[in-house]
Design a protein that fits this description.
Layout lengths: L1 H24 L21 E4 L5 E4 L8 E5 L4 E8 L2 E5 L5 E5 L3 E3 L21 E11 L6 E11 L4 E21 L2 E21 L6 E14 L2 E15 L4 E14 L6 E15 L1
Length: 281
């Protein structure tokens, strides 16, 4: 029995020596002590550190006119949420944030990906007034061609809805034509000045962009030869913004109203094509 125990002890000692030699020849990978192999992958937090001596002012917004929300000493560190121009939006606590000017701090990392960059092709025009001056051609009852001048004042209720008032002026010259009346056939020619105005709702089909097609419709009146006629109008057009607040406007409208007296009253289709300049306030 003693020989058997001695034999097994010799075998275990030999195996231990062999294992030690194998470990020395093939050492295990040397992982850093603070590395967790199965832990979650966390993005590096971007921070800034206050570098200005004395008291550093933190404000409620990105500008010197915003209220002060805190004063911090040199060396204080903050997690950066966003960046706008020369201001950093930082987290002050779990519930509070503030803005620090870049001259008061230094960056730990590149913050360029946090910069707020609005889409230059997309603008909000809600609440803007639109002033338009235009000129073009007017066809009274589709038979006369005359110049027209006018203006429009609009207000953007929503991105896609504009309320608009307009007024136009033209000199109508109708060529001689045969007109049937109670006294037979006569050859008549008309020449008169006409002032017309309307209130419209305009639907912007692609609001906020550089090229904005639209459809419009409304009602108003036409004043000519001492008479006032109620009119309806509808049309289509487009605003092409050459600048953020300046646009070239192309528009086609059809004005519908009756004219004449008693048996000679007739329906009119009056076409207006205009080109104008719109300025947003």
């Amino acid at each position: 029995m003693y020989r058997s125990a001695t034999k097994w002890a010799s075998v275990c000692l030999a195996l231990a020596i062999f294992a030690g030699n194998s470990a020395a020849q093939n050492p295990a990978p040397d992982f850093p002590k603070d590395t967790e192999l199965n832990g979650p992958h966390v993005l590096t937090e971007k921070k800034v550190r206050l570098s200005n001596d004395g008291n550093n002012v933190v404000r409620s917004g990105p500008g010197d006119t915003f209220a002060i929300v805190g004063v911090y000493s040199k060396g204080s560190e903050f997690l950066v949420i966003a960046k706008r121009d020369e201001w950093y939006n930082v987290r002050l606590s779990d519930t509070n944030t503030g803005w620090i000017h870049s001259s008061l701090c230094e960056e730990f990392d590149d913050m360029s990906d946090l910069e707020f960059r609005p889409n230059p092709r997309l603008f909000s025009r809600v609440g803007c007034f639109a002033l338009t001056a235009y000129a073009g051609g007017y066809a009274f009852d589709r038979k006369s061609n005359s110049l027209v001048f006018g203006g429009r004042v609009g207000y953007y209720l929503f991105e896609f809805i504009e309320v608009e008032g307009s007024a136009g002026f033209t000199h109508v010259v109708r060529p001689a034509e045969i007109v049937e009346s109670l006294f037979g056939l006569t050859l008549e020619e008309e020449e008169f000045y006409m002032l017309y105005y309307a209130m419209n709702l305009t639907w912007k089909i692609l609001p906020g962009r550089q090229l904005v097609p639209f459809a419009t419709g409304g009602a108003g009146s036409s004043i000519m030869q001492g008479e006032t006629e109620t009119s309806l109008n509808y049309g289509i057009g487009a605003d092409f913004f050459v600048k953020k607040s300046t646009a070239v406007r192309f528009e086609f409208r059809n004005y519908l109203f009756d004219s004449g007296v008693s048996e000679t009253r007739r329906d009119n289709l009056n076409f207006e094509f205009s080109v104008g300049v719109t300025y947003l306030l």
